[in-house]
């Protein structure tokens, strides 16, 4: 019996406020203005993403796809991340990253778990490779490039409150039921994933909003604790 385990990335697989913020820190910029407008309801997610891309390009007009990817290098990973995902794969699980975070960081994580299949463009695949595909399914946001140059509109795969729909589509494509699905997240944006899962784990919670929607809450930043609960659930 195959199980599906879906992870948020920022503050879950990555031990940082967000993968976007990590890049801003590297570049010495901030997106407080757009963030405030979004929280006031004056900006939708699509326009917020475009403003963030514009902010990055304005900060360094010479920036291209390669140099922007370089700014993501060194993003701190959560304690126990590699062992957690490796153990799930060894136990026959399908593993997905579903996050509004940056696609390059998710690609770096997914590339730690290569498959024996040759890389091909696929729904939920990685956008850069070393000849082989990843065993993970990846859905994230970020930027688009053409001929190495960064576009204006960005890559928008994951809506803040639309993660449950992605989990549902993934379940149907993989033939895995809600009863065999688990999700791990830290914020209100992950509640949709929780609702589409048999087991929901609120890990390193951003605030108390998602806690009330989760079966288990883990406040210690160690994914080994998440793995223990997942392995118990798989064996039930």
Question: What is this structure's SSE topology?
Answer:
Blueprint: E1 4-7, H1 19-27, H2 32-39, H3 45-59, H4 65-71, H5 81-90, E2 94-102, H6 103-110, E3 114-118, E4 132-134, E5 137-142, E6 145-146, E7 149-150, E8 155-156, H7 163-174, E9 181-185, H8 191-195, E10 199-203, E11 216-218, H9 223-235
Parallel strand pairs: 1-2, 1-9, 2-5, 9-10, 10-11
Antiparallel strand pairs: 3-4, 5-8, 6-7
Report on this structure:
The chain is of the alpha/beta class. The chain has 2 domains: 4-16 and 76-235, HAD superfamily/HAD-like (Rossmann fold, 3-Layer(aba) Sandwich); 19-71. The protein has 9 helices and 11 strands. The strands form 3 sheets. It has a 7-stranded mixed beta sheet, with helices on both faces. The chain has a two-stranded antiparallel sheet with strand order 3-4. The longest helix is centred in the first third of the chain and has 15 residues, at 45-59. It starts with a strand and ends with a helix. The mean pLDDT is 95.
C-alpha Rg (nearest Å): 17 Å
Order of helices and strands: EHHHHHEHEEEEEEHEHEEH
Return residue spans where pLDDT drops below 50 for at least 5 consecutive residues: none
As for the number of domains, it is 2
Total helix count?
9
Roughly what fraction of the amino acids lie in strands? 15-25%
The CATH architecture designation of the largest domain is 3-Layer(aba) Sandwich
- Fraction of residues in helices? 25-40%
Mean pLDDT level:
95
- Which fold name is given in CATH as the topology of the largest domain? Rossmann fold
Biggest β-sheet: count, sense, barrel? 7 strands, mixed
Q: Which CATH top level class of the largest domain fits?
A: Alpha Beta
The overall strand count is 11
Query: Looking at the structure, what is the overall shape?
Result: globular
Q: Class by helix and strand content?
A: alpha/beta
CATH superfamily of the largest domain: HAD superfamily/HAD-like
How do the strands line up in the largest sheet? 8-5-2-1-9-10-11
Taking the alpha carbons of the first and last residues, their distance comes to: 11 Å
């Amino acid at each position: 019996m195959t199980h599906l385990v879906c992870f948020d990335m920022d503050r879950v697989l990555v031990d940082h406020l967000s993968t976007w913020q990590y890049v801003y820190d590297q570049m010495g910029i901030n997106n407080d203005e757009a963030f405030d407008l979004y929280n006031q309801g004056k900006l939708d997610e699509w326009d917020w993403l475009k403003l963030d891309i514009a902010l990055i390009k304005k900060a360094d007009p010479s920036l291209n796809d390669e140099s922007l990817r370089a700014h993501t290098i060194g993003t701190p990973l959560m304690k126990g991340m590699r062992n957690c995902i490796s153990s799930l794969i060894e136990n026959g699980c399908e593993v997905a990253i579903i996050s509004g975070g940056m696609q390059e960081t998710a690609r770096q994580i997914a590339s730690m778990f290569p498959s024996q299949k040759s890389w091909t463009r696929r729904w939920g695949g990685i956008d850069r490779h070393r000849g082989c595909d990843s065993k993970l399914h990846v859905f994230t946001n970020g930027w688009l490039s053409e001929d190495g140059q960064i576009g204006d509109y960005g890559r928008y795969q994951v809506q803040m409150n639309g993660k449950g729909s992605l989990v549902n589509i993934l379940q149907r494509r993989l033939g895995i039921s809600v009863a065999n699905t688990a999700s791990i997240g830290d914020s209100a944006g992950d509640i949709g994933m929780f609702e589409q899962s048999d087991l929901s784990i609120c890990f390193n919670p951003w605030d108390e909003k998602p806690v009330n929607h989760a079966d288990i809450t883990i406040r210690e930043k160690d994914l080994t604790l998440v793995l223990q609960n997942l392995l118990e659930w798989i064996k039930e």
